[in-house]
Amino acid sequence: MKIRSTTADDRAVFVDTMFTAFARFPDTAGETWSALEMDRGLLAVTEDGRPVGTAAAYSFELTLPGEVVVPAAGVTAVGVLPSHRRQGVLSAMMRRQLADFRARGEFLSVLLASEALIYRRFGYGPATYTRRLTVQRHRAAFAVPRTAGVATGSIEVLRRADCGEILETVYDRYRRTLPGALSRPHGWWEAGAGQPPISRAQRHVAVHRDADGVPDGYASYSLTEPSTLTVDETIATDDAVSTALARFLLGHDLVTEVVFKHRPLDDPLRWQLEDFRAGELGGDTDWLWVRLLDVPRALTARGWQTDGELVLDVGDPALGEHGRYLLTVRDGEAACVPTEREPDLSLDVSDLGSIYLGGTTPSMLVRAGHIRAHHPEAAALADALFGTERPPHCLHWF
Ligand SMILES: CC(=O)SCCNC(=O)CCNC(=O)[C@H](O)C(C)(C)COP(=O)(O)OP(=O)(O)OC[C@H]1O[C@@H](n2cnc3c(N)ncnc32)[C@H](O)[C@@H]1OP(=O)(O)O
What we know:
The chain is of the alpha+beta class. The chain contains ten helices and 19 strands. It folds into three domains: 2-106, Aminopeptidase; 130-285, 3-Layer(aba) Sandwich (Aminopeptidase); 295-386, Nonspecific Lipid-transfer Protein, Chain A, CATH 3.30.1050.10.
């Protein structure tokens, strides 16, 4: 078995192997995956030359707390043929891929996990979460807003094919301020790759424009059941725009319920309804998994809200590494250096990935038995330090 890099010439065999691993058939010549970066692909090949495994990565930008935008390698298209599973093929590809990321100078990697048991052993931890809100339309009267701003713009319904540029521009503005959000490469929009609203399935897009006519939000939606309107994603550059889009969607005649997918944990929409029970939460699950490849670099890259000091003892069994770091935050800037001091917390690098964006509290992982706190104040200290103004959210599918 050997692991080799792919080139553009390998696209067809790569896509075919990957789809076979998922027991699916490619669409027309793998169009759905045409935004893959083939110079970042890996093929696992048997001694007699048969491809049996695939892995690839996108060159994303990830927004960190403090509106810091950094590069992140987005692992994708991971698959091993059913005939060759549990023989270490994925492990070999992961080892190679992590080494490749470091060789490129990347210090963060992210992925969406098909199954939650696969990636912790490779140092990834769940870091953002998502859920849907189903609202009974006839009970969806809005409470009178006391303080929330009211958008003064307009909404127009467009076809997906007619507003690609608008969506791309609005999304790009939105993702730069939200921790956990990923860039969507231009080629990805162009290729029509990924899931809704980018898939070829028909969708309407409600575009919100501000008072000057500049697009500042959109929602993509379609009727999925005779009387269910499903909203794939709502992108809004502020809360007032998000509210305006929700009001618009809930105003659809002939619809009994509206399903808002991919809502963040701090979504105010349910609280905006007069009848709190008109909205029901569901589909609560992990979304983006994060892996730190260089602990000091990653910790000094993100923004911090609170001053403090913490000694972290970090194990990285997947890479056979271990480090103890003194993290010092002053005026929003962090320094992170190796230390011999006694640790406040001992944790696996996958747990550090979970708390890194502020979406998972260190104290919860202490209570769950993942992180070890070495004294009674350690967990609260870490909560205060890692906490962020808003929970991270990612709604990109890749
Ligand atoms: C980011 C993404 O692309 S997510 C998509 C992941 N791909 C899929 O889900 C497609 C279907 N599944 C597959 O192709 C394969 O089962 C893979 C890729 C998940 C695993 O590939 P394999 O080559 O079998 O993994 P490998 O043999 O290296 O296993 C390494 C370890 O992980 C464990 N493991 C691997 N997959 C799973 C799983 N799905 N559930 C639980 N444990 C798993 C193995 O038991 C093994 O444990 P051990 O080291 O204690 O023995």
